[in-house]
Amino acid sequence: RTIESLGSLRSRTVIVRCDLNVPLTDGVITDDGRIRASLTTIRELRAAGARVVLISHLGRPKGAPEARYSLRPVAVRMGELLGAPVGFVEETVGAEASAAVGALGEGDVVLLENLRFNPGETSADEQDRRAFAERLAALGDAFVSDGFGVVHRRQASVTELAQLLPSAAGRLVAAELEVLQRLTERPERPYTVVLGGSKVSDKLGVISHLIERVDTLLIGGGMLFTFLAAQGHGVASSLLEADQLDTVRGYLADAEKRGVRIVLPIDVVVAEAFAADADHAVVPADAIESSRFGAAGIGLDIGPASAQAFAEVIAESSTVFWNGPMGVFEMDAFANGTRTLAQALTETDGFTVVGGGDSAAAVRALGFDDDQFGHISTGGGASLEFLEGKQLPGLEVLA
Ligand code: 3PG
């Protein structure tokens, strides 16, 4: 259901669930991509004369207020980007929130405090979620679900709230779905997926699903060491999920049977320690233990030959989906793999999608612009679960 299905919104109070879960360092927003991505829906609702109540989570507080997870800095940034004041209320539900919402005029916008300061938001008990959602629903007349990054979560503001008010998907959710459906239903081939990030175990579902659908899978980031170990190579002190070795061996065998290429790095950057100024060297991927750092060596990036080989695969691809950095891109010495990969995505003629908060933040931090990519998804877990073919609770309730 799209926003049109809600009818005239003039003077109606519309609650909008956004994903304003942005990275913060000492209270300063380091990447405002998710705030920007929320603006289309908010602008449209203001223009339609709605009274707009924004709700979101930030981080993972445990059901009680914590100053470092306050959404206040987000309200300030949202106001700057919107070019209009965005009020902020220090609670999500309660007398103060009701008064602030009651005082809104047509086109006014207010942001309520972090949903996850309330235990009902993320409770495993449906009754608790429902009770919290009822208090949220009492604040508005209609609900717009636009937090694509949380549609894979069964949480009060995502699922139960949508059942209590006339509800619709916002423009961001609609736009994300259109792009991701293109990948699941009719990807132009060759279709390449690049997976990075630290944990194989986070991506097990999506890897097994992708092996049935893609032509090539490029593996980088911390998870590559579990793949190298599964092939029998030593990885010294690099990240290793020893309990995943059999699963990974199974993937490698399955991919071979299906004719899917799984490309692993041929060289890696090994460092003496996990530190920005650590001594480091490029070594062949099958000789990590023979580096001059011996058993202490830690792989922190894919090597230049691998980055080049990955870039060549991308240049030949018609569709590319990328999730997860190739190395510790926050440290300059270990950013080359991620930078080379991002550059390759900007240069290919194929359709490119960057999925996930970390990958989006990585490309922006390395100086790339959003419009150099086909699409930058605001959802990390959500986009992976969608590609995995899972039913996402926050979308099911809107169907
Ligand atoms: C994300 O950052 O992927 C979303 O905001 C969801 O956050 P969560 O993983 O804490 O539910």
Automatic annotation (TrEMBL):
(2R)-3-phosphoglycerate binds at R34, R116, R153. The keyword Phosphoprotein does not apply. Keywords: ATP-binding, Cytoplasm, Glycolysis, Kinase, Nucleotide-binding, Transferase. It is found in: Cytoplasm. ATP binds at K203, G299, E330, G356, G357, D358, S359. The keyword Lipid biosynthesis does not apply. It is an enzyme of class 2 (transferase). Its EC number is 2.7.2.3. It catalyses: (2R)-3-phosphoglycerate + ATP = (2R)-3-phospho-glyceroyl phosphate + ADP. Transmembrane segments: none annotated. One of its GO terms (cellular component) is cytosol. Substrate binds at D19, L20, N21, R34, H57, L58, G59, R60, R116, R153. It comes from the Bacteria. GO terms for biological process: gluconeogenesis; glycolytic process. Pathway: Carbohydrate degradation; glycolysis; pyruvate from D-glyceraldehyde 3-phosphate: step 2/5. GO terms for molecular function: ADP binding; ATP binding; phosphoglycerate kinase activity. Monomer. Belongs to the phosphoglycerate kinase family. This is Phosphoglycerate kinase. It comes from Leucobacter triazinivorans. The gene is pgk.
